[in-house]
Amino acid sequence: MTQPQTLGVPQRFDKRVRVASGQGFWGDWLEAPRRQVEGGDVDYLMLDYLAEVTMSILQKQKERDPNTGYARDFVGAIESVLPAVAKRGVRVIANAGGVNPPACAAAIRAVAQKHGVSDAIRIGVVTGDDLLPRLDELIAGGHPLANMETGEPLSTVRDRVLSANAYIGSTPIVEALGKGANIVITGRSTDTALTMAPLRFEFGWAADDWDRLAAGIIAGHIIECGAQCSGGNCLYDWQNIPDLANVGYPIVDGSPDGSFVIYKHPDTGGRISVPSVTEQLVYEMGDPHSYITPDVIADFTSIHLEPAGENRVRVFGIEGRPPTDSLKVSIAYRAGFKAVGTLVYSWPDALPKAELADRVLRERLDRLGVRVEHILTEFVGVSATHGPLAGEVHDPPEVQLRIGVRGPDKAAIERFTREIAPLVLNGPPSVTGFAGGRPKVEEIVAYWPALIDKRVVQTRVEVLT
Amino acid sequence: MKVRLLDIAHARSGDKGDTANVGVIALEPEWYPVLERYLTLDRVTQHFHGIITGPIERYELPNLRALNFLLHGALDGGGTLSLKTDAQGKVFSTAMLRMVLDVPDEEARAAHLPGMKAWPSYTRSPKE
Fold it and tell me: Strands of A319-321's sheet, edge to edge?
């Protein structure tokens, strides 16, 4: 990828840019995008839809219907913020395009037309991350796409690959903004680039301004999980966090020097504090010295946080360094089948009853000759989440027996699902909680992280007017 | 003196493949050195013995008054392969907070560490 020195507008040192987070994953609060644009002035709305295996789900949808393959929630989100985009100049950046950004753009265009504002909408579409059509060519060309965890070459699962997308950085988004897009749709952009790109564009940060780019990435990391930095899932003083029902999603108030303030709209619930932001900073952290992105490597040990008023935290001092020559590739492949069955056993002796049911089930599977690659039993209410660390639980009112199996043989997994319900009548007593019926057999779509030479990934930007 | 990690730190955890990460954050600035000195790789490895299958890495972030631990082989294969309730390692944080540290009395007093009480059902409200 060629990196232009400066793509954005000329620098102004008094300028501030506000980027609001409206979606932390596909399935996040539907109210959040609208609340972010109506609760106060913001310049950008950032919506993150893609988790590691989302791309494969979207790829399956696209195979069934070539007009799908993107995050459908995004259409409703845009509809809910359309007045702000069309009349108030709020710009939206989202990785909602999934494996089909052009189809996503068409759906957004249709919504704009329906509301009579298509003249005010300019959709930027970023493509080039999808490596699936090029996979064989890449492997033949000496790119093994080896699994970053196991070292195995992709050729071992090639025939089972469902999707393959390079994580792309901020440059194509900056380019789309430069071309006047007010809704930018990408495929597998990194979550953090969605926030960093508008800051880089507005402040005119150069492509080698490592410290500021790193600051933009860390701003993105803080708000990419939505309310998880503003009081949601916050352990610190959780019982005193106010009004979570009305939780405010976070907003980055960025400055040209790379420092920024995390805040939320007035009259919203939740809490933004140094501890709440710190919890989000350490979330999914690897080696803190090297948070690697396509644009820059950010150093989390350089981050400084300070309180800056009620529900405001200032972040500064961030350092970055040049990125690697590789891009991470997210590959999804079919990896067999799984099913999870549950039953609930009541007091007295809930745990011994559940343990007996587990032994009975396993013995039956054994006698039936049902072979699975892996079986896991958990006792929810006793040891499911903390295992032996939980210590002894004395005669609890109920215990949920939870048994999961996985393996390559679908018939074996199917057979397992037929062995749960019978236990209600032919197993240990005091059993309930089977109303959900037979467990569902799911195909496992597993994640294969790999690296690829940056130079073979060419992104393209198109702005539809 | 015995000091519960729950009384001096808060935490959040997440996943990357079959690895769970646990960030442990001091509740008070003066308690971070205690974490740095006594929440060691050895102690944490011992705590999770038999629960995870791989090694543990430990990183220090004095700027955030936090330690980050990477627990490899923690998630039954991780992601969609995992059959665990906690396939994404979301509550490894609280499993970590079950730890009890041994801190010399003098050091514990100097840092005003809270002593052992009955296990509370919630996190201590820190002083602001």
Answer: A291-292, A297-299, A319-321
